[in-house]
Amino acid sequence: MRKEVVVKWLTSTRKVLGASRAFGRLCGKPFDRGFVGELLVLERLLQTYKLKLCASDKNGFEYAGSANKGWDVSLTLGGKTIYVNAKSTTTETKKESGYPKWVRQHASDFCDIKYVKIGPKKFIQQVRGKKKGNHDLFYVFVDVGIWKKTSGGTANFYTLPHEEAASICYKKYRKVFHNGRPRKNKSTDFHFEYDEVKKFKDLNLCRILKK
Q1: Model pLDDT for residues 111-130, shown as the tens digit of each residue
Q2: What are residue 122's DSSP bridge partners?
Q3: Residue 103's pLDDT is what?
Q4: How far from each other are the two terminal CA atoms of the chain, in whole angstroms?
Q5: CA distances, 117 to each of 67, 81, 109, 135, 185 (Å)
Q6: Among 83, 101, 81, which Cα is nearest to 91's?
Q7: How far is CA 15 from its chain centroid?
C-alpha cells in the first residue's frame, strides 16, 4: 500500500475526529458515538500498523462503515486478513465509578439462541455457545466517553477475539438474563461492563496480530 494513501487516510480521519469532537462539545449532547468509535479504531490501526501497511503493495485495509458486513475495518498484512468490529460507548456504570458500560449489544451475535413458543405472544430463549467461532474477527470495545473528557482526545480500547467475547457473553447472558425465562419478544439485548473486559485493555490494538 502506498505511503501517501495511508497518510491521506490518517490525516482525513484525524480531521473528522477533530470536527466531531468540536461539534459534540458545542451541542452538549451524545453525538454519534458509533461512528466516532469506528474512526478512533481506524486511526489507531493506521497509526500502529502504518509501517507494515506501506511495506508491501499486497498489504491494505478497508473501512466498511455502515455496510452491515458484521465488521467495520479489515486489515491485511503478510497475506492474512483480520476483521475488526468496533463497539462504542459513552455510558458509565450506575455506580458513578466512571467505568464504561457497553449497552445494547446483541447476544445473538455471540451465542446460538433458539426460540421456543410457550403462548400466543410469549417465548423462552434457549442459549448455547456457538459451535464455531470466527478466528479472524476481533471486537474492540471503545470508551468514547473518556475520549470526550480528556484534553488530548485519548480513547481506551479493549481488544477481544471473537471466542473470548462469545465466552463472556454466553456465561453472563445464560446465567443472568433470559435463558428459560418468558419473553414477550425475541430481543437479545444485553451489555458488557468494565469488569468483564478490563483485562483486555490494549491501547495500541496489538492483540489482533498475536494470533
Answers
A1: 888 888 888 878 888 888 87
A2: 119
A3: 85
A4: 23
A5: 33, 41, 21, 33, 10
A6: 101
A7: 22
pLDDT at 170 over 70: yes
Assigned C-alpha cell, 204: 495500541
Cell representation of residue 118? 410457550
CA 137 to chain centre: 11
CA 19 to chain centre: 22
Size of the chain, expressed as the number of residues it contains: 211
- In whole angstroms, what is the distance from residue 13 CA to residue 173 CA? 35
3-state SS string over the chain?
CCHHHHHHHHHHHHHHHHHHHHHHHHHCCCCCHHHHHHHHHHHHHHHHHHHHHCCCCCCEEEECCCCCCCCCEEEEECCEEEEEEEEEECCECCCCCCCEEEEEEEHHHCEEEEEEEEECCEEEEEEEECCCCCCCEEEEEEEHHHHHHCCCCCCEEEEEEHHHHHHHHHHHHHHHCCECCEECCCCCEEEEEHHHHHHHECCCCCHHHCC
